[in-house]
Amino acid sequence: MDWDDPLRHLAPISEHPAKKSTLSSELSAISDQELASLKVNVKLDWFGQTSPRHNRAACILGSFFQFLEDEGRKVLAREILAWMHVEDNLFELANHLVAAILLPFKASSGKAPPPVSRPSVFADEDHEIEQAVGFIEPSQRDQTKLKRQSLRRDGYQCIYTGVFDRRSVKEEKVTLPQEARFGHTECAHIIPFALGNFNDKDALETENKSLIWWTLHRYFPTLRSKIDAASINQLGNVVTLFSEAHNIFGEFELTFRPQENAPNSYETITVPGYAVESKSGSSIIQLEQHDASIPMPDPEYFKVHHIISQILEVSGLGCEIDELLKAAEEAVEKLDPNGSSDLGLLLSQKMLIHTWV
């Protein structure tokens, strides 16, 4: 059966306010990074006191500003400082960040996404996006080969739990150690596969995916030369996970934070009460390369996944998106007990009347 793209129902993505305004050089004149951060936080606090809507936008922007890395934070800081007295721009910026980053990532965990409104950008970026639409290509899905290579590299086991792949044990590709467990494992994408999968004959879908990647590269510049729609299926972007671990990873309830100066070492962060322990028995795990010819997972991708998890939690949008997805699923069950209704279209209808800011 063909893969059901959870992002195929994306409506045009919400507007980026940069088209209306040029950015000031205010931040570039501030040499002290801590002073720049203080200035942004103080202004967001002031902005958020005006009304509940202002507070909501300040919370979203503040969450991104808190967790983005330095280069992405600098871009966002320049935007916030330039548009502090143009409130519509800040509302649009907050909506765009939700629509182009948080929503696609969160909805890509096997659920259909809500629609969002179309963005526009200022002249230079508008030209960049037009070029991106012309050159963007969907990834070619070859999960069988990718999983086979990922399994060899990861020692035929989940990188988090250490659970061995059931089929590999059955086919005697690996000998099950004494007292070890086996089960169903999956090839998990760190940057969601859905971001690279689209119908290139559909102009709206193509534009949406190019806008998502433009926004990701804008605020996560370390991704620019590493990954895009066409290269989503790279070995640096996949890991072997036990099916249950894959589920919570897709829900951003399991993340891997790279440890400084310790290659392939990660601090794992899970939701409280998760029943399955890490293979090391602690929060720190070491990834092992069992086949030296197969590239290891890229820590930058894990870092982006972890940052987005933090933003979803602190902004409260993770729970909000989950509630909307759940409401759509319940509505489908009421309409058609056999489950033949189109969840994506129903969710789109619900999201059309939902506003983030």
Automatic annotation (TrEMBL):
InterPro entries: HNH_nuc (IPR003615). It holds the Pfam family HNH_2. It comes from the Eukaryota. Residues 177-256 form the HNH nuclease domain. This is HNH nuclease domain-containing protein. It comes from Lasiosphaeria hispida.
